């Protein structure tokens, strides 16, 4: 081929490659925008439209995978937690295969389908961490939306406390719990997770400002948040909120006096509820004390004993996804309660859809192997979230670490791990925290 012809061919090939690259980057940018819009809508949908929140998570997943394919960017698969997460997920899927000869998948085909679908949550965390919240502007939008959701729940709860109903006309819960904007008493769990990223950054910012007014604002803001949690009247969310604040105060030195004062005021308010709100006092103090005194024969103790009995009979593979719900009513798992007072552990009457603890659920779903993999995955999530926080405790990162830590705290009563809305809140906050840890530039 003549030199001029060869040069012309090379230029044509180069131009074609550049044009293809340009189109690919343009398509990837469009997918990124669609994923960001879906993600920013998710917290709002988690408030009142859980089904649509599932759909928005699916949109994020599809956009992220399509973007990775178009850009030929699969480097995110080398992330440490993504080497453990798929193994845990794959093990639960294997344990959910309905193979009677192996004793797996006792929940049948529905259990297997749910196990396979769990992958969508791992994908959305990866998408948020590596692509969707990579830009600082996107992370600022996420902060604003989550803070607005926290304010919405908190203000609705205060309105309900004063008036007796929320703005939708729904009354206080049967045991005196404030339901906030919801029809049932479920305001405490989401608020206890999102209150940290909503409050800690502005409180830290106010503490850094000169003047008495800024300091008073910081104390007042944190105290208001804690008081709302007390008045809502849900025990576990309140305890986990205190735990999260202790973690934040440990990492953020300037936050310690504020947490101490706000915590003391919250305890004083709790004591005052015997007059201010007797149902709240009964639920948070009297009922909680009675449950702790007789924990082994409380429903929580009986659920955990039942989960352990299932794990002991299926130590390798558990019963597959949703194994507790399908196995709990079966008499072969009616082991005595921890104190031996209930020979049948409460029988079928104590059964629920899940064992009210993530680690007990991991045991019943995948045996002790599944439990070990789940613990490893939890640690693999927490490690990057905590990295560098002792040396450079950036307030938002500290807040998100606290939110994820209390969600994964092993000594807690919980919903099912992936159930909405709490599963949605957890995976959004987790992905956001990992994105902040990966892309945020530390202050110098």
Give an account of the 3D structure:
- With about 450 residues, the chain is mainly alpha-helical.
- The chain has 2 domains: about 20-80; about 85-295 and about 355-440, no CATH class.
- It has 16 helices and no strands.
- Helix 1 packs across helix 16, helix 7 (about 190-210) runs parallel beside helix 16 and helix 9 (about 235-250) runs antiparallel to helix 10.
- The relative contact order is 0.12.
Share in β-strands? under 5%
> Mean pLDDT score, rounded?
90
SSE order = HHHHHHHHHHHHHHHH
Q: Main beta sheet: strand number and arrangement?
A: none
Overall structural class, as computed from helix and strand content, comes to mainly alpha
Helix content: over 70%
- The N- and C-terminal alpha carbons lie at a distance of 59 Å
Radius of gyration: 25 Å
- How many runs of DSSP E, i.e. beta strands? 0
Q: What's the SSE blueprint?
A:
Elements: H1 3-48, H2 50-71, H3 81-96, H4 108-117, H5 119-132, H6 136-163, H7 188-208, H8 212-232, H9 235-251, H10 256-276, H11 278-293, H12 299-313, H13 323-327, H14 358-386, H15 395-408, H16 422-439
């Amino acid at each position: 081929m003549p030199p001029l012809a060869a040069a012309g061919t090379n230029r044509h090939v180069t131009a074609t490659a550049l044009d293809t690259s340009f189109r690919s980057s343009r398509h990837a940018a469009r997918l990124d925008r669609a994923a960001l819009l879906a993600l920013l809508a998710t917290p709002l949908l988690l408030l009142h439209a859980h089904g649509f929140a599932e759909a928005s998570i699916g949109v994020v997943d599809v956009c992220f995978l399509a973007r990775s394919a178009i850009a030929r960017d699969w480097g995110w698969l080398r992330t440490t937690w993504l080497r453990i997460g798929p193994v845990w997920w794959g093990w639960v899927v294997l344990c959910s295969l309905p193979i009677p000869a192996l004793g797996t998948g006792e929940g049948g085909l529905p259990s297997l389908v749910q196990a396979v679908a769990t992958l969508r949550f791992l994908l959305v965390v990866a998408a948020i961490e590596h692509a969707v919240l990579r830009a600082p502007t996107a992370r600022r939008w996420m902060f604003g939306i989550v803070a607005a959701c926290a304010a919405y729940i908190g203000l609705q709860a205060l309105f309900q406390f004063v008036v007796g109903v929320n703005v939708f006309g729904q009354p206080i819960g049967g045991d005196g719990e404030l339901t906030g904007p919801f029809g049932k008493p479920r305001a405490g769990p989401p608020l206890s997770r999102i209150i940290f990223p909503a409050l800690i950054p502005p409180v830290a910012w106010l503490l850094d400002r000169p003047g008495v007014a800024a300091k008073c604002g910081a104390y007042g803001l944190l105290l208001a948040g804690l008081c709302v949690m007390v008045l809502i009247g849900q025990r576990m969310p309140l305890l986990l909120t205190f735990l999260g604040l202790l973690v934040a105060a440990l990492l953020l030195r300037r936050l310690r006096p504020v947490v101490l004062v706000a915590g003391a005021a919250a305890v004083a308010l709790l004591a005052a509820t015997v007059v201010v709100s007797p149902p709240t006092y009964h639920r948070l103090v009297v009922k909680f004390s009675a449950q702790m005194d007789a924990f082994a024969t409380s429903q929580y103790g009986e659920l955990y004993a039942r989960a352990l009995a299932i794990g002991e009979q299926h130590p390798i593979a558990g019963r597959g996804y949703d194994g507790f719900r399908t196995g709990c009513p079966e008499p072969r798992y009616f082991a005595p309660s921890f104190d031996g007072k209930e020979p049948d552990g409460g029988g079928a009457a104590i059964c629920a859809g899940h064992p009210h603890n993530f680690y007990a659920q991991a045991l019943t779903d995948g045996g002790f192997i599944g439990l070990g993999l789940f613990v490893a995955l939890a640690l693999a999530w927490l490690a990057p979230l905590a990295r560098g926080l002792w040396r450079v405790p950036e307030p938002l990162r500290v807040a998100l670490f606290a939110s994820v830590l209390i969600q994964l705290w092993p000594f807690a009563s919980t919903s099912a791990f992936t159930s909405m809305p709490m599963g949605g809140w957890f995976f959004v906050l987790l992905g956001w925290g990992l994105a902040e840890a990966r892309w945020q530039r530390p202050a110098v």
